Amino acid sequence: MSVLQLSNVTKLYGSFVAVNNISFNVEKGKILSLLGPSGCGKTTTLRLISGFEVPNDGAVMFSGVDMKGRRPYERNVGLLFQDYALFPHMTVRENVAYGLKHRNFDKAKIPARVSEMLSLVKLKGFEDRRPGQLSGGQQQRVALARALAIYPEVVLLDEPLSALDAKLRQELRFELKEILSAVDATTIVVTHDQEEAMSLGDSVIVMSGGKIMQQGAPTDIYTNPKTRFVAEFIGRSNWFTGRLLPSSNGLAEFQSGSGLRMVVPVPDGSVNGTTFDVCVRPERIQINGIGQPSSLAPGNEMRGTIRDVAHLGADLHLVIEIPGGQLLTVTEKYVGQALEQSGQEVSVAFRPSDCIVVPSGS
Ligand SMILES: Nc1ncnc2c1ncn2[C@@H]1O[C@H](COP(=O)(O)OP(=O)(O)OP(=O)(O)O)[C@@H](O)[C@H]1O
Ligand SMILES: [Mg+2]
């Protein structure tokens, strides 16, 4: 049975639909990443689960039990807010003990539990400090220890790493994953960072305008987005817009508005009279010397001119102009090869199976 289940949950503020008929499950010990642009309803979804908001419609269930009518303190939820809101006048020890004291946890056992949580988040020795005497990353860990201390049935983390700089964020992302797995927490992590969502989540939900646009394993969402919105939200992409011509063998001929022809997989549903957008991820495009056979044949090949080469550590990011003037973004692994030069004529190639076809305007 799922530890957390939302069924057709809707939340209105006046006539504004903040959360629009969403349903999903989270299984025991799994992490679900909730991803989407600012204002799409992520925090509202967490507030509905924790009981700070009441749905206008639908149900929130914990291990099969309907939470209707239960106040926040009657739900076994460990919460970490968007700004992690530690109590500034309390010590680290008092902050972590807070939830335990307010939930009638056996008083004699509180010190041991606090100590256990502080070793989990690697903050032993910091017990008597106040939040103002800690770095951002340390405060974040105290907030996490506080959320996990109460043996929560469900853990809700709202942008847990957003207050941190990029390097610390990456380090803590890995630590956070380890800590959650150590306590087998059933977790929802809200983020608007797609890399974070994909690296933390066993599954990912992409939201927009209060609705779930797509849900799946991180790799599935990246390689098989159903709409342009999801494809653009998860990772970088190159786009062509055009029409599909009659097909065979599960493949179709695609003709772009600028006259490019390529072979693509046939999308689900009708292809007649509809415009499609084709997405090709930058790392799926191969660059060859002119006249050099493509290792991706039989595929899609076109001439191009390199307009920019940027060497970013392990990766090369190239901008290539193709016939019609469109600029493609291409990434290559940098393994010490001679760098392509701006102005160089090349041919670019990609497999039909590397093309993602979605309805235009989706
Ligand atoms: N109490 C409220 N009254 C009216 N509208 C609200 C209220 N709370 C949230 N909203 C609106 O509901 C929508 C969803 O808000 P929410 O806080 O869930 O967004 P979010 O996805 O968490 O965004 P962010 O990434 O910026 O945190 C927004 O348009 C917001 O303005
Ligand atoms: Mg929010």
UniProtKB/TrEMBL annotation:
The keyword Signal does not apply. One of its GO terms (molecular function) is transmembrane transporter activity. PROSITE patterns: ABC_TRANSPORTER_1, ABC_TRANSPORTER_2. It holds the Pfam family TOBE_2. Gene3D superfamilies: 2.40.50.100, P-loop containing nucleotide triphosphate hydrolases. Residues 4-234 form the ABC transporter domain. One of its GO terms (biological process) is quaternary ammonium group transport. Keywords: ATP-binding, Cell inner membrane, Cell membrane, Membrane, Nucleotide-binding, Transport. One of its GO terms (cellular component) is ATP-binding cassette (ABC) transporter complex. The keyword Transit peptide does not apply. Coiled coil: none annotated. This is Putative spermidine/putrescine transport system ATP-binding protein/putrescine transport system ATP-binding protein. The lineage of its organism: Bacteria, Pseudomonadati, Pseudomonadota, Betaproteobacteria, Burkholderiales.
